[in-house]
Amino acid sequence: MEVENKFVTIKGYVDGPPSESDFEVAFAVRVLKADQGSNDVIVKNICVSVDPYQINRMKNYSSSQTTSSFATRLVPGEGIDAYGIGRVVASDNSEFAEGDIVVGLLGWEEYSVVRGGNWLRRINSTEFPFSYHVGILGLSGLTAYSGFYNICKPKKGEKVFVSAATGSVGHVVGQLAKLFGCYVVGCAGSKQKVDVLKDKLGFDDAFNYKDEPDLKSALKRYFPDGIDIYFDNVGGEMLEAAVANMNTFGRVAVCGVISEYIDDGRRVAPDMLDVVYKRITIQGFLASDHMNVMADFISTISDHLRNAKIHALEDISQGLESAPAAFLGLFRGHNVGKKLVRISAD
Ligand SMILES: NC(=O)c1ccc[n+]([C@@H]2O[C@H](COP(=O)([O-])OP(=O)(O)OC[C@H]3O[C@@H](n4cnc5c(N)ncnc54)[C@H](OP(=O)(O)O)[C@@H]3O)[C@@H](O)[C@H]2O)c1
Q1: Count H helices, E strands: the chain?
Q2: Protein residue with its CA nearest to atom 28 in ligand 1
């Protein structure tokens, strides 16, 4: 069967803050048949992820700048790949059959061809909503889990600070830290988000960083005895302020630096003398380096969900056409929880 596949693309490279006019919805004819011997799997997408790092793939880097191989550059006019969940509509792969529900690298499009079935995983259970497999039980959750346990190396009773704390990664980190027996403070960009952190997710405290003219003294107020662990989702001035408030042998897990993704290139760095004298470990990481903990991660988070010990915050936009606005909203703080776009019904 032939379909007119609808997909979202960038019209050109994006310099500076993105706007909706940088995107368009395009169409391409797709034959829903996997070629014999290809191992390809064709998926009808149900729900796809919208992630801040995508902006770094849309920029027009000069030849002296490169993105990491993890974030290969997007091509204007072509599809935008993204993690997602969907239903197999055709398969030449013995591991996947028509009708299977799968998660993997799909795209902001109605149908995706997964070459060789690479990276696909079948979901055999309907215990949780499908969207959870893209968020809390998907790469966002894995980022939180691996970053907190493997990079932060927590000890019970330690004081943990999480930025972008209602975000897809942050809200899971904070809850894991609470379950582990840490004291947890989160920051976010609105009163509504602060209320969610304190009232729904059980953070010990939370604040709106936009109300704080001096981040260093704000953190001093929330952590009079210092910070042991900082889970950094934003970078910039918040990282500088957190390092100034860290205890000796503190750990900073640098998950992402969203405050620097669409700025004018001005950079604020932490005081490195502080880092030396306080023997602070600052470590960047990628969830993709921690696939070996996938089984433990899924089993642990599933148990927490089952026992209502952890809440999944989701923010789902409806329809493929909503993907550009959903994406822009990440940089404007519009999302509360994991941002997803629903493309078709379960
Ligand atoms: N290392 C990895 O493997 C990995 C994997 C996934 C994500 N990440 C990174 O982790 C971070 C969080 O990603 P996510 O998917 O969980 O996104 P998210 O937190 O769900 O969404 C982005 C949030 O960031 C906050 N934000 C936006 N611009 C900001 C700014 N200039 N300063 C401070 N906060 C700002 C906004 O919340 P507020 O209302 O609180 O401002 C916004 O809602 C990102 O930096 C992302 O690139 C890394």
Answers
A1: 9, 15
A2: 331
